[in-house]
Write a structure and sequence with these properties.
Shape: globular
Largest sheet: 6 strands, mixed
Number of strands: 6
Distance between the termini: 18 Å
Helix content: 40-55%
Structural class: alpha/beta
Radius of gyration: 15 Å
Oligomer: single chain
Number of helices: 6
Length: 161
Amino acid sequence: MKIQNVITEPFTLHHVQVQSKKSLFTLVAEHVVERMPEVDAHELYKNLMSREKLGSTALGGGVAIPHCRVSGLTRPIGMLITLEKPVDFDAIDNQWVNLIFILIAPLHEHEQHLGLLRDIAVLLSHTSHHQYLTTAQSTPDLHMRFQSLEIKTESYSPVTA
């Protein structure tokens, strides 16, 4: 599955105002549940926070990839978010985060989840991609820019026996 197939425009948010990871995850849970009522907002929030407590999902350079798995999903979904003001994600480089890709995968899709995370990390680790995305002027512009990025990774495809 290609990364671009995981993000749709309704799951792209431009210049969001949040004060912390907690307020970001609350916003994400509410946003997802409005569009996908089969997902439990409390479970999503709790799983995002639990994963973050294991270690920061910040890559450095102002980018974070919070992720978790939840019940109720049949396919992975992602959210691409730029923040109006950066928030602290306890990044190893001490930079606050203003570009976030949230990956939410079905509860039992471990390998696909890891493959998508790898591809997202490679894609967003490029400084030029960070600047290209964070200078978008609107949500449609941000979504279009993300869809146009060249991905130099191999998309995950399960091995079947």
